[in-house]
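Input set for joint prediction.
Command: fold jointly, output tokens.
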Amino acid sequence: MSYTFTKSSELFQRAQKSIAGGVNSGIRKMELPVPVYFERGSGPSLWDVDGNHYLDFQLGQGALLYGHAPEGMAEAIAAQAKLGCHWAAQSKLEIEVAERLQAMVPSAELVRFNNCATEVVMAAFRLARAHTGRPYILRFEGHYHGWSDEGTVSASTPQRLWGADSENPPSYHQSQGVIPAVPEQFIVARWNDPEHLRRRVDQFRGKIAAIIFEPIGCNTSCIEPIPGLLETIRELCDRDGMLMIADETITGFRFGASCAQGYLGFKPDITVFGKAIGGGTPFAALVGTRAAMTKITSGEVMHAGTLNGNPLCLAASKWCLDKIISLGNTHPASIQKLGCKLMNGLANLGRENDIPLLPQGPGIAFQTMMLKPGAADGPARDYRDHVLRHDQPRWAHLRRCLLEEGVRAIERGLWSISLTHSEADIDEALRRAATAFKRHAGMWNAARSAINAKATA
Ligand SMILES: Cc1ncc(COP(=O)(O)O)c(C=O)c1O
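tokens >
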């Protein structure tokens, strides 16, 4: 019997009278059949206001690497709350967290804290421009770096704007109200094409302050870098004095204690951390080599924030980092094993039900790409390849069926595994998914016609 969402629907109706659009982050509106209202979480499980139970692979957009309400974290936060929630001043805790980062991540020679990764990215861009005295940042199409005027440029450029010249991807921001000059400060390149990247850098040589990237493109199809790509970025940055900025907001600590930079073997100048560094609390960090952080150290680059180094978040982060350290080299191997099992199980269910589902990624996180009718098989190579072959309406329908059977993935198709998921949870998720896949397969042709009819009406 699939889930119903009566109370969530009622709350969403009510929310729209007091909360603009009914949600507090635009993407949450994508959840079908209705944005779900939750009451409680524990480990890999979530319960909503209608009493429905979910095995959660959305995990707070990836922040909950340690699962929901992990034992010990609430106690750490509560103990700190009794001593004070906020000082806007120094604490021993902030040094303890910074020292843990130094010990875990070789490129983290110096650290500054913020409240979310969007802020950290803004700081990293400012720092890079000041460090080099150059105006431009090079970024990759389909990589997301937060919701600011600077962060979202070309994260999801619509196909109609690609133009005929794939050598010059346009700078595009999806939001109205952006300062018009901001997107113009970005040089956009295609991911996974080192020769194209070289040409793009040469085109603007001497004017680029930094290259920013998601080491694994988790915001578009969980696309891994092809061999040689990260080496090319490092080489070009060293050659031209640009800063290499790794945005590890999703990959940080998920890919092991030394993060994706340890997992993939590269050393950036600056790294952005968010999400798992705070385990669900509003916490983020800008880290970098001593040389790259010079202008913040000297105060020539402004970096500020009333809530920076907030003790509640620091207490949570210290608990999270200690958890990762305690796992030694069992992390990320254990979540990767579970993730690969889930990926294979979902791929099998796709085959059994004639659904063109293509899970891709390293398992620690992965994407369920849904192929359009007639699209070529094989993993997506870059953003445009993903857009051309991924059937978003069909994935949204399958995602809804999964949700109705109690399996929850990120709306756009990304799945994450937590340290609290077990083999039994993966088996149970696949049992539930089997029902969801059957329902989707039975309903999809009619659902597609209805979606098409609505689009043309
Ligand atoms: C790679 C990346 N960078 C930056 C951000 C912005 O993080 P936040 O929403 O916590 O500000 C995100 C958010 O999803 C992200 O995925």
